[in-house]
Design brief:
Layout (H helix, E strand, L loop, with lengths): L6 E5 L4 H12 L3 E6 L2 H13 L3 E6 L5 H15 L4 E4 L15 H26 L4 E6 L12 H21 L4 E8 L2 E2 L1 H10 L1 H10 L6 E2 H12 L10 E4 L6
Parallel strand pairs: 1-2, 1-4, 2-3, 4-5, 5-6, 6-9, 7-8
Helix pairs in contact: 1-2, 1-8, 3-4, 4-5, 6-7
């Protein structure tokens, strides 16, 4: 098994890509802390893992809240004795408007979850990894590289996640902590379903159908990349940002 004896904390594990990664990581031998604002959803993920013989527990946390994130990291370490993998996956995309019309409150909220949340995860997890080793995976997006009109806060948050990933990789490489980012394209999750409702199916699907692979991706295809980055198979990789987007930027 590719994650035997490892402990992983995954945020946003109630649904979408976080849920898929939690299930895959557990199937590969990791003990999983399934963290989400939605406790019931996280519990359902942990139950699915336990039902298939894996180890997991659910924890409610708002990733934008420092106390919540510290408590989630501490809970994982006290439950499983260590922390090897942090997957900062939780994120939101809740308002679309041109920059001049974008609400200041929503800008701050998106930055707080998508950017501050990733910082907080790294801040509290790194002390448990430094020296003995660890892998951190931060979720960015293709929109870190290509503008999504109406998404000033979301695009800014994802671009900054890549910058933070590089900083932490440089700072903690000597302490054997690897830090990488995943940049998904359009992936079939509840978030994408919501984007179709908000922007119209055409806006989402036309772009996907022009990408080289002519389709949207699924959460398992992202989880496979996260698994590789979480595992020792990627032992010489840090400070990198990986596209998993069907070639949409090519
Ligand atoms: N779906 C896509 O097409 C796509 C593309 C690029 C990047 N992403 C990014 O991938 C990540 C996962 O997206 P998804 O599509 O699976 O989303 P999703 O909306 O389907 O699931 C996100 C999960 O995060 C949780 N969450 C939201 N706010 C939280 C908070 N403050 N604290 C803790 N948990 C919180 C939600 O409860 C939910 O379980 C996000 O960072 C998203 O920005 C998604």
């Amino acid at each position: 098994m590719r994650l035997a004896n490892k402990v992983a904390l995954i945020t946003g594990a109630a649904m979408g890509m976080g849920e898929a990664a939690a299930i895959l990581f557990a199937a590969e031998g990791a003990a999983v802390a399934a963290v989400d604002l939605n406790l019931e959803g996280a519990q359902a993920t942990a139950r699915r893992i336990a039902d298939s013989g894996g180890r997991a527990f659910a924890c409610r946390a708002d990733v934008s809240d420092a106390g919540d994130v510290k408590a989630a990291v501490d809970a994982a370490v006290s439950r499983f004795g260590r922390l090897d993998i942090l997957y900062n996956n939780a994120g939101v995309d809740i308002e679309h408007a041109p920059t001049a019309d974008y609400s200041i409150e929503m800008f701050d909220r998106i930055i707080a979850i998508n950017l501050r949340g990733v910082f907080l995860g790294m801040k509290f997890a790194i002390p448990h990894m430094a020296g003995r080793g660890g892998s951190i995976i931060n979720t960015a997006s293709v929109v870190a590289f290509k503008a999504m009109p109406g998404g000033v806060a979301y695009c800014a948050s994802k671009g900054a996640v890549i910058a933070m990933t590089q900083v932490a990789a440089v700072e903690y490489g000597p302490a054997k902590v690897r830090v990488n980012a995943i940049c998904p394209g359009a992936i079939e999750t509840p978030m994408l379903a919501e984007a179709r409702r908000r922007m119209g199916a055409g806006a989402v699907d036309n772009a996907a159908n022009f990408a080289p692979l002519r389709r949207t991706g699924n959460a398992q295809e992202v989880a496979q990349l996260a698994l590789f980055l979480a595992s020792d198979e990627s032992s010489f990789i840090t400070g990198s940002a990986y596209l998993v987007d069907g070639g949409s930027l090519a």
